[in-house]
Design brief:
The structure is a homodimer of 385-residue chains.
Chain A (H helix, E strand, L loop, with lengths): L8 E2 L9 H7 L9 H17 L8 E6 L3 H10 L6 E5 L3 H12 L3 E5 L9 H10 L4 E5 L1 E2 L4 E2 L3 H10 L4 E5 L18 E5 L10 E6 L1 H8 L12 H12 L11 H14 L4 H21 L16 E5 L6 H10 L2 E2 L1 E2 L9 E5 L3 H4 L5 H15 L6
Parallel strand pairs in A: 1-12, 3-4, 3-5, 5-8, 8-9
Antiparallel strand pairs in A: 2-10, 6-7, 9-10, 11-14, 13-14
Chain lengths: 385, 385
């Protein structure tokens, strides 16, 4: 029996529904941010992140900062790239465009490899771009929350290491970490940035990231200082290292309550093999995508290999308006998200299926959402052709 | 009867002890950051901040961002000052030095008016500095958390408006907002940045600020773009204005739980006249400072007019080490903070007295802390001369 009051089930691509124990950790009594109890909790949290990202390389460096997922872009752009350096941004939608804008603010020269809405840049095009210029960094949005397009990391990393081995590989994993497989060491990634409120299942308010020894080296050998103060790796790296070594340290006050909640969420995730977690998300996703197809509807992500497993972006039939369907679903106790990709914003909706809604089927969230979608579409005038 | 488990009383200069209802708001069930319920809560929170800062000028602009108090420095330095412009930083300790470092990262030319440890720059010295150069901005740390030195805002603002009327006046109010008087409109301030976890009494994780119409104008008329992406006023201003108008809007995901807690904290604060709240903090402070004097100890802030009312920085007797006294106090159930000002770090401790520990005397926090300090000093070998 949940300790949460009855409420509509939140099935947007983040924030997601939270486990009771995680929410209770948010109410933790006040602690000193440099006291031994909290230092131990924060230190353990950083170590747990190494397991979540599947990295055992001691040179890998986790960061947990107060902020939203977007702050991770600043962390990358202000620290790992210097003004005038070239960055290749693989573009799959709204969030890749945002990452590109962030790089420009910090003075990088940005080249984007684009793809039509609902698809992702293909490896031959990426190879061509990499051969044209020496890039300091390539970035990829693992799951673009605006389209539900999934990018492949393993093959991409192999390509980059083959044709441009000095190029740092940085992943925007905001909508993928903890629901899509990420083997940080094995795939030789240099950075993954994410947020607390998606598949990790901790309320919003934390920017979470992991960087490789090679990325940290790139930061150490900068010729110019970090371009951010709050998001400066110079300011934060010793703090993160001290916390993980269980030593008190201060740059700016972390949020003990959010860190406690993250600790609880990570502990829950890591009680079971990660492979099992990813498989559960794939199974739920397959079921949802099957139901969408049964309804005669198309996904924004057109190719089955490019479809995310923690969310589904669904094109609406012409006769159904999102402005009518979403409130209808809300009355049925299910909250979906509207479109956000500028080119198609009014034409689709987004269904998030991450975390406890997937791993605790006894909650019935997915069943309820599929039923609501079927009924809601009918009530809004849709009849399958 | 508190719903919190028994725990040591946190009396450091932030985070502070939190009210039960505020902590319970941290466990709010998950909501969409763009859904009508949360949009209303966030919008009301922004309007409540206008009351807390005592501003009725509709041109004033509040911001609530995920981040720590330090992020407020970036918000000021990356948006309101352009590279090469001159900033005058009034320096009272560790936190003024940090603000100066932040400006340098964003390309400002920083001049500091310094003062000996435990005092603050005096008006004639500030006037002299203002007459030497045309400054875009002057900053003052209202209460420097490292020393407990209180700066005067009203007289300072009068001086600046008299001798350098175009200079923006920005206040670091991290350790002063909600325990020291700040009359934003009446004192003609242009910016006050603060954090959630001090006298406002909401867990850490939010950067909270208020800017004048004049400051927003300075941002609008920048020749170069904002130097930060996550802390960009261009990105956030429309979002804050939309939330306050109860319209959904998105740049980066806010933390619904923290915003609920802030809403609860502000609602509690504003049920009573602010003057009463400030008077209560002054009365508790006077009592604590009296007890410190009775013990024969000196404060870091030497001049009674320069002493903060939400914290007290206390020089230890030569024979007592902080490393011995602080654990002794902790065993008595009272957490004080060590020193942080580099020049004197080992020689003093800090006692925070803000929020519920002051406004709810029935908690007995202050009584307990004074008794613990008296007993702890004796047990650590101190005898009043």
């Amino acid at each position: 029996m949940s300790s949460q009051p009855p409420h509509s089930t939140l099935l947007i691509p983040g924030p997601i529904e939270f486990d009771d124990a995680v929410l209770q950790s948010m109410s933790h009594y006040s602690e000193s941010h440099v006291g031994p109890a909290f230092v131990a909790t924060f230190g353990e949290t950083l170590s747990l992140l190494r397991k979540l990202f599947q990295t055992t390389d001691p040179a890998s460096q986790p960061f947990v900062l107060s902020g939203s997922g977007t702050l991770g872009w600043d962390l990358v752009a202000a620290n790992l790239v210097e003004p005038g350096e070239d960055v290749l941004v693989l573009t799959t939608g709204y969030f890749s465009d945002g990452f590109a804008d962030c790089f420009k603010i910090y003075g990088a020269n940005v080249t984007q490899v684009t793809a039509p809405v609902g698809s992702r840049p293909q490896l031959p095009d990426i190879e061509k771009a990499l051969l044209e210029k020496k890039y300091k960094m390539i970035t990829v949005t693992h799951v673009d929350t605006s389209t539900g397009v999934l990018s492949e990391l393993k093959n991409l990393s192999e390509l980059v290491h083959r044709v441009s081995p000095d190029t740092l590989i940085v992943v925007d994993g905001v909508c993928s970490v903890a629901c899509e497989e990420i083997a940080f060491d094995e795939w030789k990634l240099d950075g993954v940035v994410t947020a607390s409120q998606k598949a990790i299942g901790c309320p919003a308010g934390l920017s979470i990231s992991m960087f490789s020894g090679r990325a940290m080296q790139a930061f150490q050998s900068r010729k110019s200082p970090s371009r951010s103060y709050f998001a400066s790796m110079k300011n934060w790296t010793p703090i993160m290292q001290n916390y993980e070594a269980k030593k008190p340290s201060y740059f700016a006050t972390p949020s003990p309550q959010l860190v406690h909640a993250l600790h609880t969420a990570l502990t829950q995730i890591l009680t079971k093999p990660l492979a099992e977690r990813f498989a559960k998300h794939k199974k739920a996703s397959d079921r949802i995508k099957g139901a969408v197809a049964d309804l005669g509807l198309k996904q924004v992500a057109a190719n089955p290999d490019d479809q995310a497993h923690g969310m589904t972006a669904i094109y609406l039939p012409d006769e159904v308006k999102a402005a009518e369907l979403l409130p209808n679903l809300s009355k049925k106790g299910v909250i979906f998200a509207g479109g956000i990709h500028k080119a198609i914003a009014q034409k689709y909706i987004r269904f998030g299926h991450m975390g406890v809604s997937v791993t605790q089927p006894e909650r019935g969230d997915i069943d309820k959402a599929i039923k609501a979608l079927q009924d809601g579409l009918t009530e809004c005038g849709y009849q399958k052709a």
